[in-house]
Amino acid sequence: MRGKVVVVGGGIAGLWTALSFRKASPIVVAPKSDDEANTYWAQGGIAAALSPHDSPLLHYEDTLRAGGGFNDRKAALVLTHYGPMVVNKLMQMGFRFNEHPHLEGGHSTPRVWNVGDETGRVLLRFLRRKAEGRVEWRPGWVVSLLKEGDRVVGVRLADGSEIEADAVVLATGGYAALWERTTNPPNTLGRGLLMAAMAGAYLTDLEFVQFHPTVSLTTPPVLLTEALRGAGARLVNESGKDVVNPLLPRDIVARAVYNYRRRHGEVFLDLSRVDMDRFPVARRLYERFGERIPVSPAAHYSIGGVRTDVWGRTNVRGLWAVGECSATGAHGANRLASNSLLEGLVFGYRVALDVEEDVSQWPEFKFLREMSVEVSEGDEDIGALRGIMERYVGVERDAKGLREALNLLEGTGGIGNLARSIVEAALWREESRGVHYRRDHPSPSPEFSGRLGVRFRTIM
Ligand SMILES: Cc1cc2nc3c(=O)[nH]c(=O)nc-3n(C[C@H](O)[C@H](O)[C@H](O)COP(=O)(O)OP(=O)(O)OC[C@H]3O[C@@H](n4cnc5c(N)ncnc54)[C@H](O)[C@@H]3O)c2cc1C
Predict the structure, then answer these.
(1) What is the CATH number of the domain that holds 230?
(2) What is the mean pLDDT of the chain?
(3) Would the CB of 189 count as within 6 Å of ligand 1?
(4) For residues 148 and 220, which has the higher predicted lDDT (pLDDT)?
(5) Closest Cα to atom 19, ligand 1: which residue?
(6) Are residues 114 and 220 in the same domain?
């Protein structure tokens, strides 16, 4: 049993990890406002094989199909088979889902447990209530990890204070707000990945960023959940003609919408066949703009992250990562819809067990190739960075654009180091696989069937 534990992050992954400890009393460090977490904005729900006609094996097979077989099979197996257990645990704690699960793209049966399209907000508030009195919450922002030799031994906060710990769990969320058009809150910049890499952790799968196909072209942009398409919404052009089968996996739908808009014109999500009472968020848009909402893709989910094993262990002793900031490999090259809230629950539970009981061995990771990215000390300019990522590292990429992005990012410090790593990874992967689409290499290549491990190299 380890002594003091710090969990960084107050979304589903951080809170569920903190609530899953049996003996230790972890300190959660995160801002108090809940809408900074992606969890708050999650809509469709949590995928889990709970229905009598469903099975974890079927869920596993759907996860592999969506992930293009690039999945770490052990991680996908753990995700889907622990799914019913953790969702049951959530319900035993008093959380109530709507009676019927949604059907979402890529799932062979309805299995997305939801509270309409407000699942994340209701769930986060529930978890925060459960954490009151059980978990010590330190409002704040972590800026770096403390190290002693090869171990992480605590965290440093923005106010200069430090918390020493025997175990640090990063649950800091993804990096999709590095793009201009994004569904994520603006602070979702991958700061946790940056801290982990600075402490010597491997990052992987950075080139795999999922773009959500149906984000409204309104101000502000609103994500129109996949479940709407499961409930009958269509993707149509100006004259009402179907543009693409709306239930295909997200990457295919996103590229179809992106290319239709580039070549022909606007694409609309047609809600005329949907029972809007089931979707309060979408209904608000429907009431303002009518049954056809103009949409385009936006950066949505970071598949890449800090490389971990199925217990959330990174390659740095004392450091675990869980949720969207981690990369267990469970999602492969494309995340199956609604598998990410589930990931927070499943791996959060396992991280707590591992930290507390010391059940697994410290892992060594093997990659198809390792790359070290030189850390730059310069300044970061988030606005400029976002423009570069949007223009050159979007739904479709090519070598020319990615090289241009690297030129433009040269010398940028801070989160620019993470942006450069993402571009380097996308440039290295000369193939198209899942959500990573290279215009100049439109097919998968057996040469790239493994992962790229990225580490930071600091110049003395
Ligand atoms: C609009 C939208 C809809 C979605 N719909 C679904 C869905 O229906 N189903 C599904 O499965 N997934 C959905 N997702 C994805 C899902 O919400 C996320 O993958 C998941 O919530 C990530 O949880 P997390 O705990 O890992 O990260 P987050 O919820 O993003 O939480 C990260 C936490 O870390 C804190 N933090 C970050 N850096 C620091 C730092 N340096 N110091 C201190 N604190 C820090 C943040 O403030 C936040 O509290 C959706 C996402 C969005 C944006």
Answers:
(1) 3.90.700.10
(2) 95
(3) no
(4) 148
(5) 340
(6) no
